Amino acid sequence: MHMIVPPPLQKGQKVAIVAPARHIDENAIDKAIEIFEAWDLEVAPGRHLFSSYHQFAGHDQQRAMDLQQAIQDPDIRAIFCVRGGYGTTRMIDMVDFNPLRRSPKWIVGFSDITAILSQLHNLGIESIHGIMPALFGREGTEAAVESLRKILFAEEDSYFINPHKLNKNGVAKGNLVGGNLSILCHLIGSDTDLVTDGTILFIEDVDEYLYRIDRMMVQMKRSGKLEMLAGLVVGHFTDMKDDETAGFGKDVYEIIMEHVSEYKYPVCFGFPAGHEVNNLALPIARYCTLKVDKFGGILTLGNN
């Protein structure tokens, strides 16, 4: 499937910051604005960016409206989702993403924003799984921010991943898809369900019990999401928890490997992306090459 690639950003262009999910404080994007301006970009905050309705950044309609306006504004050349949390799937069906087919622009986010990245993949449009403005400036995020800048300005090439004892060697080529495992499971059966056949799937998660990760992997397997992959990239699984009385008996990577061990495709563990400060940007829907051998992994972010 040929994907639409948004054009690289140019100095002087305008970018939007919107909040599809949880609300934020008004000073949460100060560092992001400083960094964007250092990149010579003009920042346009969404109208309801700092709105609050219980835990959400405004009502569903308000959050959808900001995203829709950013999609349709011809002067906006990239859209940054300010943070995750929860709420994107509540409003995603209120948004018409089809204008991006005629005038593509980058949409950036991760975690709960996985729903939007999957929607764009299904429409044949590339997007970016990467650090969000609310996290800019935190200690240790420098590499994540720079990796995002490189993709936005078309300077990216390859990522090298340290070897891991559970890796499965091989070479895979395919569109890179995925994101937060919990959200990917939540999307199954919906209009945003992700077709994974022939793809390189990336997964990550945070703050989950091990048995829940196992349950998600069972669901992914039973729904046909794992069998026909070209390859699997496993990122950060952060702050995993276990039952205090009866442990699960495996760590999180062992759980994942159990459910894909029967398949022939390469598996690369320990990719530095997810809910940690070193959250390297990934071009979702990009045709990539994954090579895994005894020296580790190489993910080449080639254009199709």
TrEMBL record:
Boundaries of every LD-carboxypeptidase N-terminal domain copy: 15-130
Native source organism of the sequence: Agaribacillus aureus
Family according to the record: Belongs to the peptidase S66 family.
Domain of life, source organism: Bacteria
InterPro entries: Carboxypeptidase_A_C_sf (IPR027461), Class_I_gatase-like (IPR029062), LdcA_N (IPR027478), Peptidase_S66_N (IPR040449), Peptidase_S66C (IPR040921), S66_fam (IPR003507)
Stated name of the protein: LD-carboxypeptidase
PANTHER family assigned: MURAMOYLTETRAPEPTIDE CARBOXYPEPTIDASE (PTHR30237), MUREIN TETRAPEPTIDE CARBOXYPEPTIDASE (PTHR30237:SF2)
KW 4Fe-4S (keyword) present: no
Pfam families for this protein: Peptidase_S66, Peptidase_S66C
Residues of the LD-carboxypeptidase C-terminal domain: 173-290
CDD domains reported in the protein's UniProt record: Peptidase_S66
Keywords: Carboxypeptidase, Hydrolase, Protease, Serine protease
